[in-house]
Every structure is written in C-alpha cells, then in structure tokens.
Amino acid sequence: MTNCVNKLLEALDENINLAPDRWSEEHIIQAGNKKWISNILPAELLKRTVKQAVESLVTINESGEFYKNFPDNIETPNYGDRWGRSANYIEINNRAIAEMFGDRTRNGILSSIKILPAIPPSAKSWANCIILSQIFPNIYGDGYNKGVSEENSIYGIKLNAGYSGNIIDYDINLSGEEQFCAFNNLAHIHGLKTGFRTVISADQIKIAYPDKDDVTFDWNNPEHQELFINEHVNLIKTGFEAIFIDSAKHIGGYDMGNYTGVGALPGYEQMQYILYEIRARSGVTSISFAGEKSTGDFARYENLGLTTGTAFIPPDNYDKVKCWSEKLKYNKNYAPGVEVSNDNDEGGRSYEDRLNRINSSLFGYEYPSDKLPSFMQMEDLFPLRYDTNTHHLMMTNPSYSTDGTPESHWENLFTKDDGRAYNAKVGELFAHAMNL
C-alpha cells in the first residue's frame, strides 16, 4: 500500500508535515534507545489528535531520527519468523477506548493509534505485540453503546460485512484496510508487533449477504471456510502478524467438557489447513497464532500450527515460571505463555499482584533467549475504574461519559491518580527488561 499514515492524515484534513512533539518529550521514560510515554492517564493521550499521536511516535522512535514526513517504508521489528514464541502479547480493547458520542461508538482504530505511544516498545531480545480485541462487526448493536448491564458482546461477529463500525472511521475517505495499515505502520515505527482476536465457535459467527438474511457459520460449508480464510488473509496483508484464537483449546473436539463457547468448532486437520493457508496466501511466514488455553498437550498444539497458548504456567510464582522456561528452552517453535490476566478477568486483583505477575513474565528465566511468552490486558497497563473489568467490557459496551462526549468517557473509564502511579511502576518494570 502507499503511505497509509499520510493518507490518514490527509483524510482527517491534517497537514502531513510533522513537528517534534514537546508534550511527549516531557513524559518520556527511556531505557537505552527505547522510549515511550509513562506515568500517565490514558485520557491524556486519547484527548489528543491523531496528528499529535503521529508526531509523538516519530519524536520517540528508537532510531533517534526525526522524520518531517512519515516514511514511506516502515518495516516490522525483526525478531525472525519465530518471534511469537517469546513475545509479550498485550490486548487492547479498541472498542472500549473508541469515541462515544451519545449512544454511538466509533473510530476505535484512531483511539488505538493515540494510545500507542504509551505501550512499551519491544525489548532487545523479544517483541511486544498489541492484540486488538475487535476487528469485525459484532452481531448485535455494532456501532452503538448500551447500558452497563445490556449485552453487546465482542464474541459474536459477522464476516463478509467489512469491519466494525465501532472501530473504523467511516466518515473519512479511507478504506478500512488502509486505516489498519496506518495503525500497523505507526505501531511498527514504535517497535511493536500487532495482531487481533478472532472467534471460531460456529454459532458465534454470522455470514452477511447484501441480498438476503445473515446465516449462521458452518464449518462443513466449504464456502464459509474459504471466506474465513480470506478475511484473515486480507487483514494480515495490512500489516498484522498475530492472531489470537478464542476457544483454541477445543479445536477438534478436545476437552469439550470445559468448552464455554457456542456452536461447533473446526476439526483438528481442518484447522491445520486453515492456519497453513493463512500463512501461504498472505505470504507472511512470521505469523504467530496464539490459542486461548491451548496448553498442556504441547505437541498437540505445536503440530496444529500454533505458536503459543495461555493459562498453563502459574503466573504468581516466579520460580515456577523460571522452571518452565528451563524445561521448554529448546523448543523455539511453540511454548505456553504466562498469563498476567485474560479476557475473562473479572477484576479485583490488587496492583501488587498484577505487578508481581508482570515481573514473572518479564524476568522468569535464566537467559533472555529462554523467555516464555506472556499475555496481558489493557487493564494490566492502564487500570480500569473499580466498577468494571476486562470481561465486562468484552461482553457489554457502556459509555461512562457524564455529558455525552468521548472526552468524559475516556476520563471516567480508567482510575485516576492511583492508576497513574501504577502505570509508572509498570513502566519501570519494562524499562529494566528493555536491554536484556
């Protein structure tokens, strides 16, 4: 694609000439040549313009060179094809931080761009990877927020319907793919990998048609399978390099007694084929496939084509994390990950416990080359207000605005002074890990 960042700026009626961002320079945390924004509240970034976010990312990029115009060619951080085996995956609920005007929700990709400067960039020895919670339209209420107790789940999606009205800015003359391309280029210049969450439970997926009613997805329908593959390939071509697969543990009918999704799942060999085809058709050999709870039977998931999975290693126990790092250090294709928190997190964990889990994730090994992957949520960097939690925001889409403006929603979605202090402590942990 052409320079998607400049195209985005122009679509937003902004000049493409960039200037150093003084605000960012005053809020930098630095470790070697790695820089990001710390000791902040998310609203401070979300209230800024997209152009200010671009200028921030150019100002703090690790090359130290300031670009007066955004470069035409930005490469993804290069950690080899197996980068996902050791990465830290940080899921950002891009719907929750979207712009909420009254009952409308929109422009989550622009908010995701604005929050990028506050995400720690990748370290010397491993990558940090942002996972976006929503890409496709959700089945019910897409583009709208509802009351705090009204269901509006991200886990029910539509394919063949473009991208979510919660996420894409449909008021500007720029395609959804180009908006994702701009996000990915900006993440890359900041030293981050990127990916997105997907759903594989058949009854949680609808196929949209322009001339007839939506139909429920069917894994036995070759046309549906083909559509699933191509939708994901198209996204990879915009610059994403990771896909987090919900309910991946149960692919092929495995351990169905603990399955909490709705509907049939793909067969084991079928999913092998799907993952192979996504890699082959996109031409991206470095894709990392991360599976929800796809751990325990390591060979099963490695042979499936997965890179990592969640919820196997006890995250509160540094010594056990280090022990598993030692056991698994020779397998560079697949390893289970350390989970700070997941999308089912219902809150209540103390800041100290979260910091301890992040510490285990970043330092639980003998040598940096043996580091295990890890999984974090937005709340692990930016604490949410006390009466909500990660899972609640996946299942519902409330606005916390007191006056109908997005600025008020952003201010009230997160905690205040204690959240700022916690964010500073998270920054210190990442800073210690940067040059390992």
Structure description:
By secondary structure, the protein is of the alpha/beta class. It is 33% helix and 14% strand. An eight-stranded parallel beta barrel has the order 3-6-8-11-12-13-14-15, surrounded by four helices. Strands 7-9-10 form a three-stranded mixed beta sheet, with helices on one face. A hairpin with a 7-residue loop joins strand 9 and strand 10. The longest helix has 17 residues. The model has no long low-confidence stretch (mean pLDDT 97).
- Percent of residues in helices: 25-40%
Structural class: alpha/beta
**How many beta-strand runs?**
15
**Element-by-element helix/strand order:** HHEEHHEEEHEEHEEEHEHEHEHEHEHHHH
Over the alpha carbons, how many angstroms does the gyration radius reach?
20 Å
Oligomer: single chain
The average pLDDT score comes to 97
> Main beta sheet: strand number and arrangement?
8 strands, parallel, barrel
Instruction: Count helical runs.
Output: 15
Amount of beta strand: 5-15%
Low-confidence spans: pLDDT under 50, at least 5 residues?
Answer: none
Distance between the termini: 35 Å
Q: What is the 3D form?
A: globular
Cross-sheet strand order for the largest sheet: 3-6-8-11-12-13-14-15
